[in-house]
Structures are given as C-alpha cells and as structure tokens.
C-alpha cells in the first residue's frame, strides 16, 4: 500500500483530509466522533481527528491485525499477530488490559467483536480457536476449540469472523472452511453448526438489526442469509463470483453492502 489515506465528503465529492501512514493494514471510523483509526505493518496505531488532523500514535510490539471500538466509544480492543489482545483507553491513550496469548503460543488474531453491553469480547484466531474475554476484569471467560474448525485441513482452520447478536446472548463464529456456529454464551453450548454445499469459505458476518437474521459473506462471491433461531438458510445473493472481502449491513437492516476482490462494491436490498 502507498501509505496515503484520504477522506472525502460524499455529498459533494470534495476531499476534506489527507494523511500518511506507512503501509496501512486497515482503517476504521470511530462510532461516535469524527475520528479515524489506522494500523500499519510496523505495529503503529494512528488516531486522527478529522478534518483538523490532530494525531496520536501508539507503538505496539508487533503488527496489529484486528480491532474493534467498544459501544461507548471510549476504548479500543485490538489483537496482535502474536495472539495477544489489548484494550486501549482512547482518552488517556494507555493500555488497560493485556490478554496473553493462549498457552504462550503464537496464534494471530484475525477478528474481534464486542457485545452490545461492552462487557464481553470475542477473538477469532488463525489456528481455529476462539477466545471469549471479559473486558472489565481482564479475565478469559472461555477458550473455544470447536471440532468444526479444529478438525479441518490446516489451511481452512482460520476463524475469519466473530459476531455477537444484539438481541440474544449468542456469538456467531465463522471460518475459511465454509462453516459457521452459533454459541449460547451463558450455557457455553452450540446452538447450531451451519454449512451448505456450494457456499465456500466465509470471510465476514453481520447481524441484521432487531432481527435474528445473520448475513454471511463467502469466497465464491455469494452472500447467504440465515435464520439464527432455526439454523435454516433463507436467501442467497450473488456478487458475480468475486471473492467477498468485507460485508456490512445498514443500521436499519434494509441493505447489505459487500466489497469484493475485483474492487467492486455490491449493494443488495434485503
């Protein structure tokens, strides 16, 4: 990547801000403020106020591979290539907790999600493991080693997406093997394990607001919509067979946007 980050006003197409960061891995908007976060290959975490451009930089010990804001907007959880997970206080700009990697083994964090209360965090790892963490106590609640992911070929074990339901104490977990499971957090049991022939590796999931429906993005250019209560497939949407790399659902649950490997974005009415 060139290292240049630009922000445009979408109403008139004008550029409002431009900044630089060496080899950015990802960027993310703050949920409640005009603040942009970016992480780079060298482990730097940048936070800019937009459009003023004031900047803070946090230097991690290695690449920051995934991150998610807490619902209150005051903290950021991020994972490292080593498997460590940290919580950063954005106002004080200091680390509140560090969760050590499991058994001291390196296991890259690929995805993070946080529940609606901002209490629980979930991380998905390269090895096929999932960790549920308590953000207020710094304790590990549960290490999940589901055979649905751990027993598949090594190059398909990666957990690419984790997503807490906003309506139930459930956690959806999806992997490159094309399977996703829904866990009941209080009972620590699996409600459903779902897959379907013709639906390949999963890259991203998103819950539809105020429903029990889960949208899933696949490597073979498909989006699948599932009923999480029954575990049944409801609909399939096609993105011209281009790999779905990212997926979001609008706040009202009315549309899904899928970003694909050919640089196109597909918009679907739900």
3D structure, described in words:
The chain has 270 residues and is an all-beta fold. The chain has one helix and 25 strands. The chain has one helix spanning 147-150; strands at residues 4-9, 14-20, 24-29, 35-40, 44-49, 55-59, 64-69, 75-80, 85-89, 94-99, 109-114, 120-125, 130-134, 140-144, 159-164, 170-175, 180-184, 189-194, 202-207, 213-218, 222-227, 232-238, 244-249, 255-260, 265-269. The strands form seven sheets. The chain has a four-stranded antiparallel beta sheet with strand order 3-4-5-6, with no helix packed on it. The protein has a four-stranded antiparallel beta sheet with strand order 7-8-9-10, with no helix packed on it. Strands 11-12-13-14 form a four-stranded antiparallel beta sheet, with no helix packed on it. The model has no long low-confidence stretch (mean pLDDT 93).
Spatial strand sequence of the major β-sheet: 3-4-5-6
Percentage of residues in helical conformation: under 10%
Strands, count: 25
The percent range for strand residues is over 45%
- Poorly predicted runs of 5 or more residues: none
Q: What does the largest sheet look like?
A: 4 strands, antiparallel
- How many helical stretches? 1
The mean pLDDT is: 93
Radius of gyration (CA) equals: 18 Å
């Amino acid at each position: 990547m060139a290292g240049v980050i630009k922000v445009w006003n979408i109403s008139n197409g004008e550029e409002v801000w431009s900044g630089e960061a060496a080899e950015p891995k990802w960027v993310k908007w703050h949920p409640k403020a005009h603040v942009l976060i970016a992480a780079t290959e060298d482990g730097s975490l940048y936070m800019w106020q937009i459009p003023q451009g004031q900047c803070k930089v946090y230097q991690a010990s290695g690449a920051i591979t995934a991150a998610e804001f807490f619902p209150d907007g005051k903290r950021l959880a991020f994972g490292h290539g080593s498997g460590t997970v940290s919580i950063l206080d954005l106002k004080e700009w200091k680390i509140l907790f560090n969760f050590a990697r499991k058994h001291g083994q390196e296991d890259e964090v690929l995805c993070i999600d946080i529940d609606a209360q901002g209490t629980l965090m979930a991380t998905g790892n390269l090895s096929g493991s999932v960790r549920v963490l308590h953000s207020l106590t710094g304790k590990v609640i549960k290490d999940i080693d589901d055979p649905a992911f751990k027993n598949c070929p090594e190059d398909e074990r990666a957990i690419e997406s984790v997503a807490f339901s906003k309506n139930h104490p459930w956690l959806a977990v999806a992997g490159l093997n094309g399977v996703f499971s829904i866990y009941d957090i209080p009972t620590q049991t699996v409600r459903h394990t779902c897959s379907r022939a013709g639906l390949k590796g999963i890259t991203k999931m998103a819950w539809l607001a105020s429903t029990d429906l889960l949208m899933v993005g696949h490597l073979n250019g498909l989006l699948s919509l599932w009923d999480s209560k029954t575990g049944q497939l409801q609909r399939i949407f096609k993105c011209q067979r281009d790999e779905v790399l990212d997926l979001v659902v609008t706040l009202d649950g009315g549309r899904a946007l899928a970003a694909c490997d050919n640089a196109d974005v597909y918009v679907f009415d739900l």
